[in-house]
Amino acid sequence: MNILTDIIVYPIKSLGSVSLTGSYAESRGFQNDRRLMLVDESGRFLSQRTQPNMTGFRISLYENGIQVKYKGEEINILFDHHSDTFRPVSIWKDQLMVPEVSSNYSDWFSDQLKMKCYLVAMSKYTLRPVDTKYAKNNESVSFADGFPYLIIGSGSLDDLNSRLEKPIPMNRFRPNLVINTDSPFIEDTFDKFRIGSAIFKVVKPCSRCVITTIDQDSGIKGNEPLATLSMYRKKENKVNFGQNLICVKEGIVQVGEKVNLL
Predict the structure, then answer these.
(1) DSSP state of 21
(2) Which residues make Cβ contacts (< 8 Å) with residue 124, sequence separation at least 6?
(3) Class of the 3-261 domain?
(4) How far apart are the C-alpha atoms of 246 and 255, rounded to whole Å?
(5) What is the pLDDT along the chain (262 residues), one digit of tens a residue?
(6) Rounded Cα distance, 151 and 173, in Å
(7) Chain Cα centroid distance, residue 56
(8) For the chain, domain boundaries
């Protein structure tokens, strides 16, 4: 029996994570997952790929917003607080026009990162479709790289760590759903499944990038786990770990619930 052990969201893309005991699974991702994003002056999204110091931001959720802490400084950001300023932004191949949250917030992040940047939001009117090759019912996605959800089984990480000189935590892979599995890569065999009242569908393996080599506590970059994963999880020149999902039926999901294969 596979049980959901962790629900994890990332309110601001590429910044800190928040673990939850329950959440509402929407088409575009769990509530509050990657609905905010930092972009540079050209409007291109910022991530740990080019700014590994982004690992230093710690995030907390409260009733009306999020709190962000960085090197002794902190700021509170209210949900649904958007300015009247809209900015063109690019996230991979997608071009969007989205509201800046507040110039004050943008200035704060600019000061912390020592570069001019803007905090933008995905409003309820923003539409960013999932790649049509994988969408089943015109699903949309938040500011996540490509898909609304990522699932990984604990057995897969156990198998990887058995091959590494120094074990790594699950946070290197930034999943949304972690399930308890006795064997490695059971999630690779999933198609459609229910957790709580939500139904998810696996659409493709998650090809991993350099972010997995960045220690999420220190921001220090190394060679693992990509070096080891490439020896046994490489296909068509991509290193796969975890499965990307879409949500085909929205609903409430809670830690401790069973994964029911459909």
Answers:
(1) S
(2) none
(3) mainly beta
(4) 19
(5) 899 999 999 999 999 999 999 999 999 999 999 999 999 999 999 999 999 999 999 999 998 899 999 999 999 999 887 889 999 999 999 999 999 999 999 999 999 999 999 999 998 889 999 999 999 888 999 999 999 999 999 999 999 999 999 999 999 999 999 999 999 999 999 999 999 999 999 999 999 999 999 999 999 999 999 999 999 999 999 999 999 999 999 999 999 999 999 9
(6) 10
(7) 16
(8) 3-261
Rounded CA gap, 36 and 122, in Å?
A: 6
Strands 22-26 and 29-30 come out as antiparallel
Exposure string over 240-258, b if 16+ CB within 10 A, otherwise e: bbbbbbbbbeeeebebebe
Fill in the DSSP letter of residue 170. Answer: G
Count Cβ atoms below 10 Å from residue 223 Cβ, excluding itself: 9
Which amino acid is present at 143? F
Gap between the Cα atoms of 140 and 28, Å rounded? 5
The number of angstroms, rounded, from the C-alpha of 166 to the middle of its chain's C-alpha atoms is 24
Identify residue 35 by its one-letter amino acid code: R
> What kind and span of H or E run contains 29?
strand 29-30
Task: Please give the Cα distance from 173 to 205 (Å, whole number).
Answer: 13
d(CA 120, CA 133): 28
Q: What predicted TM-score, i.e. pTM, was given to this entire model? A: 0.96
